[in-house]
Specification:
This protein is mainly alpha-helical. 44% of the residues lie in helices and 0% in strands. It contains six helices and no strands. Helix 5 packs antiparallel against helix 6. The longest helix has 30 residues. It is flat, with a radius of gyration of 22 Å. The model has no long low-confidence stretch (mean pLDDT 85).
Length: 171
C-alpha cells in the first residue's frame, strides 16, 4: 500500500477532528496453508517460511522482515445460505449470510451487490409499490441464489490455492 498522502496527514487536512495513527506505506501478504493442523508452536512467519524452500530470496525476505505483531494465522470459513426463513423486518447481507473464501475473489463484490439490491428493494417499499416484508422477501430470494453461487465459486477455486492431500485435485 503506497499512500499518495499519508492517512494522518490527509485527516489533518480534510477532517481535523479525526485523529489517525501515523501509518507508513506497507506490504500485505497472505499464504493459504492446507488445513492439516500440524503447525505446532510455529509463528505465522515460521509456518510460511517452512513452506517457501526454493522460493525467490526477495519473497523470503519479505516474510522474514514482516512485523510479527501484525502476522497471524487465520482459519478460512464459508457460509452457504441453506433454507430461507420467513421474511421479517431484519435481514442479513454480505459475510453474515454468505461468507466466501478469498479464493473466489468475489466476497466484497457480493456484499456490495447485496447492499445495492436491498437498497432498491427498500425504495420499492418506501414508494409504496410493495410492503416492507415483500421488499425484504424479494431481496432475500435473489440474494440467496447469487450468494450461494458466489460461495460455490469460491470453494471450486480453493484447490488451486490450498492443495489438500485428502482432497483429489480437479482433472
Amino acid at each position: 500500500m503506497r499512500f499518495r498522502t499519508p492517512p494522518k496527514q490527509a485527516a489533518e487536512e480534510l477532517a481535523p477532528e479525526v485523529t489517525l495513527p501515523d501509518i507508513r506505506d506497507y506490504v500485505r501478504w497472505a499464504m493459504l496453508l492446507p488445513p492439516n493442523g500440524s503447525l505446532g508452536a510455529q509463528t505465522a512467519q515460521e509456518a510460511v517460511l517452512s513452506r517457501m524452500e526454493g522460493w525467490h530470496p526477495d519473497l523470503r525476505a519479505l516474510i522474514e522482515q514482516a512485523d510479527p505483531d501484525n502476522s497471524t494465522l487465520l482459519s478460512i470459513r464459508v457460509v452457504e445460505p441453506r433454507e430461507r426463513w420467513a421474511p421479517g423486518p431484519v435481514t442479513l447481507l454480505g459475510d453474515a449470510i454468505h461468507a466466501t473464501s478469498p479464493t473466489g475473489g468475489n466476497g466484497a463484490n457480493t456484499a456490495l451487490r447485496d447492499a445495492d439490491l436491498l437498497r432498491r428493494c427498500l425504495i420499492e417499499a418506501v414508494e409504496r409499490r410493495q410492503d416492507l416484508l415483500g421488499a425484504v422477501g424479494d431481496y432475500e430470494r435473489q440474494m440467496f441464489k447469487y450468494g450461494g453461487e458466489a460461495v460455490r465459486h469460491s470453494l471450486t477455486a480453493l484447490p488451486a490455492f490450498a492443495p489438500n492431500p485428502e482432497r483429489p485435485e480437479p482433472a
